[in-house]
Amino acid sequence: MALHATYLGANGWLLEFEAPGAAPLRVLLDPWLVGELRFLPGDWFFTGRQTRPQPIPEQIDLLLLTQGLPDHAHPPTLEQLPRSIPVVGSPSAAKVVGQLGFSQVTALAPGERCTAAGDLVIEATPGAPVPQVENGYLLRHPRGSLYAEPHGYLANAAQLPAQRLDAVITPVVDLGLPVAGAFVRGRSVLPELLERFQPATVLASTAGGDISFEGLLNRLLWQKGTPDEAAQGLPAGTALIDPVPGERLTLKMAAAAAA
User: Fold this and answer.
1) Which structural domains are found in the chain, ordered by start?
2) What is 110-157 written as a DSSP string?
3) Coil, helix or strand for 251?
């Protein structure tokens, strides 16, 4: 059994749950793979471009969306996908894909769960307030387990109890704006993620990839922390990977890391 992860830049990942003799379960998470990324009120405010876009993966079994914002539910990318792909997303993301004509859409609010693609259990957890509370996800499958949340928000212990996971996908830096403060809190939340989940692998996400940004928002943005700094504070048995877009990683299982 194996859990593979391929980083697609920004918030995007391809996750593959694989077992000998069986077809892998392929999950596409928050993809931005074609075209530009824009936020209202216009290009002068914020525009993102992929300088080396990744190809759109084939044979996707599930599309998983944490948020309805365009850097997670990116309409030009979603328009390139078959509308028959099952989708699980936050209510705002479900609205986006519904308007695009996807036919199998499950909206999960924080605290709700579902089983998708046969035996993947997906539990939605409270994520970033942007401004409505969006989703993080706890994924459990016979071939691996992980937690993913793109802004560094973690539900309290009563909502999401401590448990051993194979991996977490999280930012490891803080990003913010003057006056408004941090809207990505990866550097701040990482110690609690490590304590609660004891993951074998931390996959750094959100701020990476071959991407260029322009506009007023980008000029005001500040960052605290780096992946190298985050790696220095990891406990024994946990590895931090600052992924290269397009590189398929085979993740260590938590039980193997503890052995």
Assistant:
1) 2-258 (3.60.15.10)
2) TT-EEEETTTEEEEEEEEEESSSEEEEEEEEETTEEEEE-TTS----T
3) strand
User: Long-range contacts for 104-109 (Cβ within 8 Å, ≥24 apart)?
Assistant: 108/135, 109/135
Hey, what long-range contacts does 112-117 have (CB within 8 A, 24 or more apart)?
A: 114/88, 116/62, 116/86, 116/88, 117/25, 117/27, 117/61, 117/62, 117/86
pLDDT value of residue 51: 73
Q: Mind listing the pLDDT tens digit for each residue in 64-116?
A: 999 999 889 999 999 999 999 999 999 999 999 999 999 999 999 999 999 99
What pLDDT was estimated at residue 162?
Answer: 96
**CA 198, chain centre distance (Å):** 18
Asked if 75 and 69 touch (Cβ cutoff 8 Å), the reply is no
Regarding predicted confidence, which is higher, 34 or 22? 34
Give the C-alpha separation, 169 to 6, whole Å. Answer: 12
**Per the structure block, which two tokens stand in for 168?**
């977490």
Q: How far apart are CA 91 and CA 69, in angstroms?
A: 11
Q: Which tokens go with 179?
A: 């006056």
For residues 131 and 128, give the distance between their C-alpha atoms in angstroms, rounded to a whole number. 8
